Amino acid sequence: MANDAEPATLWRLRRGSSHAHATIFAGPEQTTVAWFVDGRMDRVENYETIDLAIARADEVRGVLTRDGWVEQE
Hints:
Elements: E1 8-15, E2 18-26, E3 31-37, E4 40-47, H1 50-66, E5 70-71
Antiparallel strand pairs: 1-2, 1-5, 2-3, 3-4
C-alpha cells in the first residue's frame, strides 16, 4: 500500500446482529487505523509505518475473534 492511498478496509467481522471493521488510512507522515462497530467509530490510532498499523489491526481482530466474532462473508 503506497502512502496517500485511498482508505482500505482490512477486515470485517460479525457477532449476532453486530458488525465491526478496521479501515486503514495511509499518509506521508503517519498511517491511521480506525475501528468501527455497528457503523460508529470505536477507536483510532496513528502509527509511523503501515506495517505497524496492520499488525495492530490484526491484533485487535484476534482479540475480537477470541471473543466470538467471526469473519463476515
